[in-house]
């Protein structure tokens, strides 16, 4: 089924690339960047507009809603090959599965979106890590070679949309492999192992950046570090500062040498304790900034000034409450959009609790308030 957009692209006098760079660098811009972070899997089954129009994923939804084009590239900077995904056991309501991170996980058979119950990790001791590193983290793996010629052709220098480069994950993916509890224990039981895992992640990202940065002018860098929950980071600040931040700094020096001065990382929960370390290393933008974990985005933007940017931060709870709450919260974002360095969208993937009509109202209101004025 061919997807037909349900909305027209927002009007503008700048290209998407010009607008993104101007907005995120506190320069004049014609209107805000029109983007969203995506949707829970249930939305594709529950929202009639998605079902009727064959919308099954985030990319199709972005086209359907005519959001601005924003692109990013990345390389093979983590485990390769992953562990084989397979069903190990079953009950009436759940499956016990081995996932690509080597975890035994209990997942519901009905397919509803939830955090799996992890039972056992494949990597627990330094011997486990040594074996896994030799098998799955080889720097000379052919899969780690970037096709620079293809990328240059796919994303020419005169493109009209912003292009980012992924800087992977220094600790979030390690959390995935060890589990939340496993990482907490390993930082104390096997600190050298965990640091070597961080170093390995860093080196693989550096290898990828060395291949692409000399040839492609990127507009931003991105990363992924889901290492916080509602009460703060899941690793100690000492560990973060002494082990993780120095690796960020190495990556940051490469980015800055290539002229990239906007770097966001995707981290849920309360990231506030990590911000000084982020800024020290060059990570100067938070994404998608969950309000329940960090408060209103104005609080941090006022505290850190123009050293910090935020993408996201529209409280999904207000979206669930309906039109009046949506409008009231949208009004609180006006000074932030006018200030620059802030792009408003839902502070994580939009949940199925949001009614279709209210979501469309939210999109309409955002265009009325932050689109180009006639």
- Here the CATH topology of the largest domain equals TIM Barrel
Cα gyration radius (Å): 21 Å
Structural class, please? alpha/beta
Number of DSSP strand runs: 13
Number of domains: 2
Q: Report strand order across the widest sheet.
A: 1-6-7-10-11-12-13
Please give the largest β-sheet.
7 strands, parallel
What are the low-pLDDT stretches, counting only 5+ consecutive residues below 50? none
* CATH architecture verdict of the largest domain: Alpha-Beta Barrel
Molecular structure report:
- The radius of gyration is 21 Å and the shape is globular.
- Strands 1-6-7-10-11-12-13 form a seven-stranded parallel beta sheet. Strands 2-3-4-5 form a four-stranded antiparallel beta sheet, with no helix packed on it. A two-stranded antiparallel sheet has the order 8-9.
- It has two domains: 16-79 and 122-370, TIM Barrel (Alpha-Beta Barrel), CATH 3.20.20; 84-121, no CATH class.
- It has helices at 16-24, 41-46, 48-52, 58-64, 126-136, 148-154, 172-178, 180-189, 191-212, 237-257, 275-281, 291-294, 297-304, 316-321, 323-332, 334-339, 356-370; strands at 71-73, 86-90, 94-98, 103-108, 117-121, 163-166, 220-224, 228-229, 232-233, 263-266, 285-287, 309-311, 342-343.
- The longest helix has 22 residues, at 191-212.
- The chain is of the alpha/beta class and 374 residues long.
- The mean pLDDT is 95.
